[in-house]
Design goal:
Layout lengths: L1 E6 L1 E2 L11 E2 L10 H21 L3 E9 L7 H14 L1 E12 L1 H5 L3 H8 L3 E7 L3 H6 L6 H13 L5 E7 L6 H13 L4 E6 L7 H7 L8 H17 L3 E4 L2 E3 L6 H7 L4 E4 L4 E4 L2 E4 L4 H10 L7 E2 L2 H12 L6 E2 H8 L3 H4 L1 H9 L3 E4 L2 E4 L1 H5 L1 H16 L7 H5 L6
Parallel strand pairs: 1-4, 1-11, 2-3, 4-5, 5-6, 6-7, 7-8
Antiparallel strand pairs: 8-10, 9-10, 12-13, 13-14, 15-17, 16-17
């Protein structure tokens, strides 16, 4: 089982972010914040509840996401991990990731303290090294902080460091993006997540773009950023193992691989989603509602039973995000159908245009296919959905809402 822990706090809210989080403000000490203390108490209560039901289950990975998990003092992270190990079977080689903002690691000795608390993988959100662009997107750190954070993490003994980066940002050109990647590679991370900016509805950056106050790079430039950026990273030893993720051999993110392979996962914290034994539920985003449900032990009272149909379409979406792709035998085992036969003309057209490949029983996207993955998946959904439910509407439109591009 995988465990995801959502930490819903930030210093300030990034202008592109649509995740659930509360801005504490620059001057607030999280350790003395009543809201943060109440969050930790509720998190431990939720954890104890699930221990009564799934206690002893083997946990392969733990991922602290947010928000900004590195706002939590290392002592708190250590307490939660200790409870996890007490209630569950936290395997000795478990991957334990903490997302961190660069400024939280630069000025303090927290990197070493997180390591001592049990974290063995840091995911540092640098996004870009350009100070002007950082200010434009609402990040609270500077480019220099990222360099210091990576150095501090290595000095603290972290042997698994990931950098989160973004392309397609306002004011960003192709040369600037490629130079950012070159600078990032010089920091010698083990893993790089490289995401294209998505203008999420309701965010400050989406409003600014709609009003013409910020301008994104042309679509052609963004395509070049993705293609040439991926080629550069692979040339420098980073395997392109998923649309937005690159890793040195042996450093693929095991937690995310678990998601893509359909493993069970337990989500803790407000807005976190869980999927266990074919049932899925999402915690309330509102703090009080989450707290009340945790106290009553009713967080999964509205759980959805995943149908074979929904599981199959989700498998299609997730597996095709990876470089390995979808094992066609797995599709046939879960659906009883031949995906290539059901979508023969579409797959043939995509193959002829070098968007997909079929090799050793797997259907996968080429790099060009990854660039237009949303369109490919939506078309495959429609055909697979029609084949699975010829007499009525299926789930493709619902699942299509979950698509996220490179």
């Amino acid at each position: 089982m995988l465990v995801y822990i959502h930490v819903p706090f930030c210093r300030t809210r990034c202008r592109y972010c649509a995740f659930h989080s509360t801005a504490l403000g620059r001057g607030v000490n999280p350790a003395s914040s009543r809201l943060v203390r109440d969050y930790v108490d509720t998190l431990l209560l939720e954890l104890a509840h699930w221990a009564d039901i799934h206690g002893g289950a083997e946990i392969q990975t733990v991922f602290w996401g947010g928000g900004t998990p590195s706002l939590l003092p290392p002592r708190i992270v250590g307490i939660v991990l200790e409870r996890l190990a007490r209630y569950f079977n936290l395997v000795g080689e478990a991957e334990i990731t903490l997302e961190a903002n660069p400024e939280s690691l630069r000025a303090r000795a927290w990197a070493a303290e997180y390591r001592a608390a049990g974290v063995n993988r840091l995911s540092i959100g640098i996004q870009t090294l350009d100070d002007t662009v950082l200010r434009m997107i609402g990040r609270s750190h500077k480019g220099g902080d990222s360099l210091h954070a990576a150095f501090a993490a290595r000095e603290a003994g972290f042997a698994n460091i990931s950098l989160d980066m973004m392309w397609g940002l306002p004011g960003q050109g192709v040369r600037q993006w490629l130079q950012t990647l070159k600078d990032a590679v010089r920091m010698e991370p083990d893993h790089i997540s490289s995401y294209g900016l998505t203008l999420e509805p309701g965010t400050a950056l989406e409003r600014a773009s709609g009003e013409g106050r910020v301008v994104l790079p042309p679509e052609r430039d963004q395509s070049i950023m993705f293609m040439e950026g991926a080629a550069f990273l692979e040339a420098n030893g980073y395997l392109h193992y998923e649309i937005s993720n690159f890793a040195r051999m042996g450093f693929q993110c095991r937690h995310n691989l678990g998601y893509w392979e359909g493993q069970d996962y337990l989500g803790l914290g407000p807005s976190a989603t869980s999927t266990i034994a074919g049932r899925r539920w999402t915690n309330p985003a509102d703090h009080k509602a989450w707290k009340d449900k945790a106290r009553l032990g009713s967080l999964d009272e509205n759980a959805e039973a995943l149908t074979v149909h929904a599981r199959a379409l989700e498998m299609l979406m997730l597996r095709l995000r990876t470089a390995r792709g979808l094992r066609l035998k797995d599709w046939r085992n879960i659906t009883g159908r031949n995906l290539l036969a059901d979508s023969r003309k579409l797959v043939q057209a995509m193959h002829e245009n070098d968007l997909v490949r079929i090799r050793h029983g797997y259907l996968s996207l080429t790099r060009s296919g990854m660039l237009v993955s949303n369109t490919i998946l939506l078309n495959l959904f429609e055909r697979a959905d029609a084949a699975l439910t010829p007499d009525g509407p299926g789930a493709s439109k619902i699942l299509a809402e979950s698509l996220c591009g490179p």
